[in-house]
Write the C-alpha cells for this entry.
Amino acid sequence: MNPTPYDQIGGDDGVRALVDRFYGHMDTLPAAKEVRAMHPKNLDSSIEKLYEFLSGWLGGPQLYMQKRGHPRLRRRHMPFSINTEGARQWMMCMERALADADLSEPTRAMLLQRFEQVANFMRNQPDERPA
Ligand code: HEM
C-alpha cells in the first residue's frame, strides 16, 4: 500500500510538529500580522483544532470529526473577513512549515497545492480595489 501523506510526514508527531511550526511562523512573522490578529491571543486551542483536522485530512485518524463533528470549514471561517491577502498570509506560514517537514518533493508540492485550494475556498470577502 502506498504511504499516506500522514505516514510520510511522520504520523502523529509529524502533524503536531507541522502545526507548531505553522502557528510559530504566524505568531512571529510581521508579514502575517493581519492573519495572526484574527486569532485568539492564546493559540493553544487553534493549534489543537488544526492538528486534529490535519490528522484526518492528511490520511490519518479523523480526530477532528470524532471530537467535534463535521468540520464545515467554510462556514466556520465566516466570522472572519478573509480576502486574497488573508489567504496569502495563511499560505506563507504553511509554505514555510512544509518546507521544514521531512517530505518527498512531489508530496510537498502536492500538499502545497491542496492547501492552496482550501485557503482560496475560505475567502469570503472581495479584495480591496484602489479608488
Ligand atoms: C485562508 C486563510 C485562513 C484564515 C485567515 C484562517 C483563520 C482562522 C481563524 C481565525 C480560526 C479560528 C481559530 C480559533 O478558533 O482558535 C480558524 C480556525 C480553523 N481553521 Fe482556518 N484560516 C484560514 C485557512 C484555513 C485552511 C486552509 C485550513 C485547512 C486546511 C484551516 C483550518 C482551520 C480549522 C480546522 C479551524 C478550527 C475550526 C473550528 O473548530 O472552529 N483554515 N481559521
Remarks:
- Residues 11-28 form the longest helix (18 residues).
